[in-house]
Amino acid sequence: MALVEKNASMDTSIGLSEASASDYVVLLKPRVMSLVVFTALVGLLAAPGHINPVLAGIAILCIAVGAGASGALNMWYDADIDAMMKRTAKRPIPAGRISREEVLTFGLLLSAFSVVTLGLFVNVLSALLLAFTIFFYAVVYTMWLKRSTPQNIVIGGAAGSFPPMIGWACVTNSVSMESIVLFMIIFLWTPPHFWALSLFMSDDYEKAKIPMMPNVMGPASTKFQIFLYTLLVAPVAVLPWIMGFAGPAYGLFAAAMGVAFIVYAWRVWRAPVGKDMIKPAKKMFAFSILYLFGIYAVLLGEILVRKALLLAGLI
């Protein structure tokens, strides 16, 4: 009994974390992780060649863990501004359920595990790409760009664009034009997606002193740039069909979704600055998620059908 009491008093003295398992899940940013895993899987399956299914599973696991590590490191560094914003105030660190030091350790351990495991079991190139992605998101974007420039999302968006390229490299041990196109689709999609969000969350960003585009350049400039980026991403998303690593179903779907994306952006651009722009901005933000998921889902579907037909000897 005395030993139990002594241990209990030691636990209190060192201030053990009150975090639950669900708090650690939140640190991984599961919504972002799910998109990362999905796009990485598409890149892996779209790549020419073959990878052992077990190694493929290890690769996707490592990419998922690396994405979670990036999320944890982001929350570690941004704990001060997370506490100021309604959208993030209930995260584990600002809510006081876990210390920043614990989150930093957690993020670094996950980073090391994901990169080393991917390098040992799959190939060094994919591991280096994963390491660079974690570094880019945690250091270049989170520690530098996010608080210093309204172009934070434009440049920082590269971090979220690498997963399909990493998946491709896991199979081919190379970076090709096809994987660069998959990268560019997400890279060009990111600014209009997040700027649409920032149009109706600008007060939160202002409170946290984050120089998002609407707060620095104004809503009118932001709306115009949203429209320009949709004009860029729409044709780029059709390139997999034009380049021959996607079929006509994907090409027609990507083209139709691109037109719809441009229409949503047009409505945001033409909406008067003020309350009248909030509704179209919210609609565009919601559609942007459907857009990216949709074109990658159709591409994945085509890939799986093609592989099934090959296995059956029908093509």
From TrEMBL:
Protease found in the keyword field: no
GO biological process: heme O biosynthetic process
Transmembrane helix keyword on record: yes
Location of this chain's protein in the cell: Cell membrane
Enzyme class: transferase
Stretches assigned to coiled coil: none
EC number annotated for this UniProt entry: 2.5.1.141
InterPro entries per the UniProt record, alphabetical: Protohaem_IX_farnesylTrfase, UbiA_prenyltransferase, UbiA_prenylTrfase_CS, UbiA_sf
Membrane spanning residue stretches: 32-51, 57-77, 103-121, 127-145, 152-174, 180-201, 222-243, 249-266, 286-305
PROSITE patterns: UBIA (PS00943)
Bilayer disposition of the protein: Multi-pass membrane protein
GO annotations of cellular component type: plasma membrane
Reaction equation(s) it catalyzes: heme b + (2E,6E)-farnesyl diphosphate + H2O = Fe(II)-heme o + diphosphate
Record keywords: Cell membrane, Heme biosynthesis, Membrane, Transferase, Transmembrane, Transmembrane helix
Family matches, as Pfam families: UbiA
Sample GO molecular function, one term: protoheme IX farnesyltransferase activity
Pathway entry: Porphyrin-containing compound metabolism; heme O biosynthesis; heme O from protoheme: step 1/1
Misc: Carbon 2 of the heme B porphyrin ring is defined according to the Fischer nomenclature.
General function of this protein: Converts heme B (protoheme IX) to heme O by substitution of the vinyl group on carbon 2 of heme B porphyrin ring with a hydroxyethyl farnesyl side group.
Family under the similarity heading: Belongs to the UbiA prenyltransferase family. Protoheme IX farnesyltransferase subfamily.
HAMAP family (alphabetical): CyoE_CtaB (MF_00154)
The protein, known as: Protoheme IX farnesyltransferase
Protein species of origin: Phyllobacterium pellucidum
Gene that produces this protein: ctaB
